[in-house]
Fold these 4 entries.
Entry 1:
Amino acid sequence: MRTVNCYDTFRRKVAVYLADVQHHMSFGQRVFAAVVLSFAMAETIVSAMGLLLIGRITPDYLITGGVASIIVATLIVAGVLQLEKKTHRFSAEMKKSEQRLNFALGVAKMGVWELDLNSRRAYLSPDIYRILGIACISTDLADFKRLIHDQDAGLVFTALDKALAEQTPYVAEYRVCLPDGRTCWIEDRGEFQLDEATGKPLRVIGTLWDITARKLAEEELRLAALVYQNSNEAMTVTDTDNRIIAINPAFSEMTGYSAEEVIGRTPKILSSGGQDSEFFRAMWRSLNATGKWQGEIWNRRKNGEKYVEWLTINTIYAEDGSVHRRVALFSDITKRKEADTLIWTQANYDLLTGLPNRRLFIDRLEQEIKKAQRDNAGIALLFIALDKFKEVNDALGHQKGDELLVQVAERIQCCVRASDTLARLGGDEFTVILRELSNTGDIAPVTQGLITRLGEYFQLGKDRAYISASIGVTVYPEDGTSSDILLQNAYQAMYAAKQSGRNGFRFFTAAMQETAQLRTRLLNDLRQALQRSEFQLYYQPIVCLSSGVIHKAEALLRWKHPEYGFISPSVFISVAEDSGLIHDIGDWVFKEAAQQVKQWRERYHRDFQVSVNKSPAQFSGGKVAHRHWSDHLEMLGLPGQSIVIEITEGLLLNVDGGLKDKLLPFKNSGVQVAIDDFGTGYSSLAYLNKLDIDFLKIDQSFTRNLSPGSTDSALCEAIVVMAHKLGQLVIAEGVETEEQRALLVQMGCDYGQGYLFSKPLPVRELEVFLAANQSALASDGLTA
Ligand code: C2E
Ligand code: MG
Ligand code: MG
């Protein structure tokens, strides 16, 4: 007969024995019975011997029998007592053993069961009830089956049937659903007991074991292994000697090394030499102190390629606190670093010139200020703005403009020390920080050198371009101690350099700040000037030099500031241009002038014409009101010829940049065009012909110096001749003296405008002037 194991058999026997003992007599009863029995037996034997030997029972025999009986009974009692003692001890030991066993089964969460294969009834030990958390269950196998998890019931009985068929031990792991809703994992093992006679299995005796904790641990391990194997992060595990004992597939993928190549080696195999020994000393200091380290590290792949990784090292300690393992996790961040660098570069550098941009410049300036503070040194900040860059851009195109900016950056770089910071703030604006300045006297030569160098021509492919630079200079700590203030100062000084004729430099002064503050104030007030009707148009007559007849006047804008009184357009027009307010203001001027010319046409002369100044800023941006203006003239019933638009010479360069198209609606409606301040700007004579120009207005700087035989006289004469050849009429501006007028008449100039005839006048006064002019002409026999 096959047994499950000797322990189980023994346990069963013990159980039977204990059951018998329970039904047995008490110890006293058992001793008394033995004494009486043995006495009776001895008496019976002795009496029987007397009868046998002498044929009767004598008192001697009875006494002898009694003595013998006592002896026998004593012996029997002694024997019984001995046996009882042994039995008792054995029983106690068995009980203890059973208790120990039950305790052990309880601790191990193990129970014993027996299944009778014929009746299909099962015996379950109390431990099983404990494990399953149930009070009692019937011996019907079907009841137990109901406890098994739906998904596992099949496998349990398949395993049992298989073991039965193959007569092999039965083993199954399955889940049971506990009454409290939990699921418990069970390991079930059993062996068959066979009938000795037939060899057929009679029953299965087995153990049932709660393995939930083990299963959970296994699941966690399985998950950990899954993570380890499938992680995108490379992993190494090193031992106490820092030798690699395990890696994951991501490690091989990232570094190119297989497990065989690195196991037993130290992580130094990846070393790129990108970090110095101090770096590693610091890393080990942290590892030894805290067990952790995290940071960026440059390493090298097997193919020699360097890469940067983000590395995290953690330590696993043994129970005695010594280092057991170190686990390193790292990811390749090379691409992210490259992207970060690119983003940083784009955020801090000007893509065109490669120079630091405004953001980085401010950062550097702040650093330089801190350094200068520490070293008690000086700094100079130069603000360089190119003059006429827009003209070049417009004339030659943006590509050439960009090329020019690159060359400008190179030239500036050559004029300063390598340690000085050059930046491009945007557009045509550059800045230079001259650091460690021991003597402010060094600034002017450097600045002058820049102006000279930038004044030289730029070769842009086949084209040559001329520009100049206006530079503002401010000095730390004299002018200011913060980056904001210094930059603002340098800008104001640059602005002053521009205002005073460009192509030069200016040091910052307190007065500039006042001017800048005034501009800010003006800007604020200018925003409300239109609504408050603070603008007014003055008109300056334009006189026909040959006849003295006045059929033309120039509209000149005046701003009556509530606090400062009349402010010259040369002060506020630039503010209006910078702020974009020029569009609304220009619109107002045009409509006002149109209204006025309508009246004068009716009152004085049907060909009366008013000139309106149009700032270059009005030609840029989206808000160009040309079409709207033509419509307005039509609405007033005015022909285009009633208006002349005065544009600056610089705009001529914009012929290819769309000026022609922008002027076309005017020209189509008959509006005429004059070039204002001719001779002062940067223009190509070729463009004069390209655009349909009606008048050239010689700038007053030429008229001012007119004297017989002077250069300006020759220039004016040349302009007159050229204009007439091109079919244009000439107006001389700023005619102040009779001599100038006479010379202009002599050279054939068509019109004159200036204080000699009249200053710009308000409407009423001009009307008086016109009336006086008309009557003077009439008395001279001329008609207006
Ligand atoms: P501009 O168009 O060249 O106007 C001529 C300027 O010379 C006027 O200055 C006028 O008062 C001044 N002027 C006239 N005759 C003489 C003279 O004999 N001697 C001297 N020294 N100056 C004379 P104003 O009115 O101060 O205007 C200055 C500039 O402001 C104008 O120069 C023009 O460019 C601009 N401006 C005036 N009104 C407007 C406007 O409505 N829109 C725009 N965009 N600009 C305007
Ligand atoms: Mg003008
Ligand atoms: Mg002018």
Note: The pocket of magnesium ion (ligand 3) is lined by residues 676-677, 697, 733 (CB under 6 Å).
Entry 2:
Amino acid sequence: MAAENPVLYLQAIERNYRQGENLLNILRGAELAVWSGQLVALVAPSGAGKSTLLHIAGLLERPDGGEVYINTQPTSALSEFERTRIRRLEMGFIYQAHHLLPELSAVENVMLPQMIRGLGKTAARTRAAELLSYLGLKERLTHRPAELSGGEQQRVAIARAVANAPRILLADEPTGNLDLRTADRVFEALTQLVRASGLAAVIATHNLELAERMDRQVTLREGQVVELKPGQPHH
Ligand code: ADP
Ligand code: MG
């Protein structure tokens, strides 16, 4: 595995925000490499920079220093057009709120990103139904978000995130709005899917019990990524 390149590599990432007179150094040389098939838990207190790190990894925000490599390709010198293309092809995002379109059914919400990418309606519907069934929502395909429970909504959001078969999944406290038991079930579905599809996943969470079940646990300390159980073989 050591010979294989990481799918995502954050190298010496710097990120500063200006707050009045002050410059907040949120990320100060953060390094993180994630390989295919790996689930990495990002566990750190609120305000530590988890969302910032995920936004930078997801090419939604540019760092002030350092480089983001996606499949060994450096991305900082790319145009917004190119970065958007990589984001569409290679990445899936899950947020704390599901952000599903309320007027669309579950299956339509999962079809949409596939059709934006150019897939035909029938093929998109087939894949959407397969994914939702895999996530235990076979009986909920035509329900609108308002007709689904919180856990079901978040499973639809997961299906939507992986609909275009990305290589990288970035999740920002995806179970943060759910009760513990529901969070557990959603998380189980998520991990199964990641392992089955060989995704590289970074999941920010406050739930230490869920974090323990991932392959690696990292935190942010003074703007740097720190491995919580160093020395453990990755994979
Ligand atoms: P976390 O996700 O770990 O809670 P964030 O990455 O959201 O942390 O934020 C890290 C720090 O950066 C916080 O102190 C936050 O207030 C600050 N911050 C985040 N985004 C901005 C921004 N756009 N402008 C100014 N400060 C920001
Ligand atoms: Mg956050």
Note: Helices lie at 50-57, 80-90, 106-116, 121-134, 150-162, 180-197, 208-212.
Entry 3:
Amino acid sequence: MSTQNKQDREAWLQGPTAQCQVVPEHGENPWRLVLLGAPGVGKGTQADLLHQRLGACHLSTGDVFRAAGSRPDCEQSPAMKEAAGYMRRGALVPDSTVWEMVRERKGCLHCGGGFILDGFPRTLGQAESLKKLMDSEGLSLTAVVNYDLPFGEIVARLGGRRTCEKCKAVYHVTERPPTVEGRCDRCEGKLFQRDDDRPESITVRLEAYDRSTAPLIEFYGKLGLLVSVAATGSPDEICAATLSSLESRHAERVPQAR
Ligand code: AP5
């Protein structure tokens, strides 16, 4: 399997009327992963690295909401405007809005390259809806990776994060700085700090995680899908630990380290 696929994600970011220009290679057994973990634990960073190794597309619900929020006001639906308000405060967007958005993108779950869901599901209701949809579409998850990190490190990661406004690549001012300050290494887009990375929103997000998302660890544990990985160390080390944990479950699938 190629590990150098460039991901496009147009169909995911813009919705079902858009088409991906770069269609991932179809594998016999595409990886269908869910990444769990508190805000700032490094799910997006790992999704990007895992995409490079496994070829599966990085599908983040947060990125869809941010892409919708950056469109002109007149092009935004009332539900998306409402979602932007929840996000700014650090609160979860209501299940009905999230589900509507995912359901209309269900074609991405059939992608021959596979997928890495990041930030979805985030409540038991969302997890149950996803399971029902995948069962009815004849699809199944390969594994659910749960990343764990002490609270203090999470806050430091969120406070220093910078994101590219064009390609959404993620940096950190001290841990993963770009080569040129304020500019993306990949596309030279401008880097910005997310509204919800302010201290008051971070607290609300971490509370929402404890209340609504942490119970998914037990949910997926009972389904026999859970793989736990400590999110300490460098991004490459964490990615290697993830691949090794996946390898012990699916020996035939993981590409050997290069
Ligand atoms: P979303 O975009 O999903 O954000 P999140 O889950 O809060 O996660 P983050 O993107 O903040 O963190 P991450 O774990 O991806 O970490 P990252 O890799 O960036 O959601 C945002 C909002 O949208 C929600 O609050 C909610 O309002 C709404 N929403 C989205 N989906 C929803 C849903 N399903 N239901 C309801 N509402 C929903 O890393 C963080 C930083 O650390 C970066 O700077 C990175 O460079 C750095 N870093 C990463 N790894 C390391 C490392 N190993 N060492 C040092 N630094 C590192």
Note: The beta strands are 32-36, 57-60, 115-118, 143-148, 161-164, 170-172, 191-192, 226-230.
Entry 4:
Amino acid sequence: MNIAILSRNKKLYSTRRLVEACEQRGHEVMVIDVLRTYMDIASSKPQAHFKGEALPTFDAVIPRIGASVTFYGTAVLRQFEMMGAYPLNESVAISRSRDKLRSMQLLSRRGVGMPNTGFANNPDDISDLIKMVGGAPLVIKLLEGTQGIGVVLAETQKAAESVLEAFMGLKANIMVQEYIKEAGGADIRCLVVDGKVVAAMKRQAMPGEFRSNLHRGGSASIIKITPAERATAVNAAKVMGLNVAGVDLLRSERGPLVMEVNSSPGLEGIETATGKDVASMIVQCIEKHARPHNTRTRGKG
Ligand code: ADP
């Protein structure tokens, strides 16, 4: 097959591993920087150009679109979908997963467990918002944050009120979430490929820290997940319409709770922690499903 990987940088671990896996399995592969791709939208025959040349019609496209380039990146992916390429994850599903409010609303509608969560634009009554999610201690998150930055644990009602006031004063988009204390500073990353959890790791925060992000000094290890955790992760990916997803879970007294569903999960942490060749499993998923125009939406969404 002729496969394109949409990635800003060939040298990134995940991109390198996907290139390797494609080549090992006998495919032609090209890494394309989405921001350097331009498109002919108006004509009846959709085209994409890169560095002065028209790109061929790929059999499949692997999107590795960073959060900061979602808008343009999904437009480029949509263009490839219109040209008939099979997208590993569809542009519509990626856009959906990048909108945290929409994702959580969709997951809750389908009965997927998640921490009690409140969203607000600029409420008159911060104390009612706090009460709504069960009171302090609680977690306040900036929607734009990644790698644990902008995730704050407010231990008391007073602390929660002042942090919320400060964030709202800055016109930041925030969410307020029940603190899952019994998770013990750990979360579970499940890598879902084609309706199965193919690898799972536990991330444990440093002592004295509740955020388990590896960038915040957390450590990763292999973990055996329960059937309920497996079912929750698979269901969350399905609800989002993602063939490949990194589903982050917290272990709570009332079962697994989904924190986030990531449409471009990094491979380095999970492959290192589990020793599994996730990149090849992703390429095998493409081999199984790639046929011209085999998308649910053909980029129409
Ligand atoms: P980011 O997307 O920036 O990584 P997360 O929402 O994943 O932010 O939060 C970072 C970390 O903080 C999580 O990996 C988890 O360990 C911890 N955490 C987040 N939300 C909660 C919560 N409601 N209860 C307990 N711990 C949480």
Note: The mean pLDDT is 93.
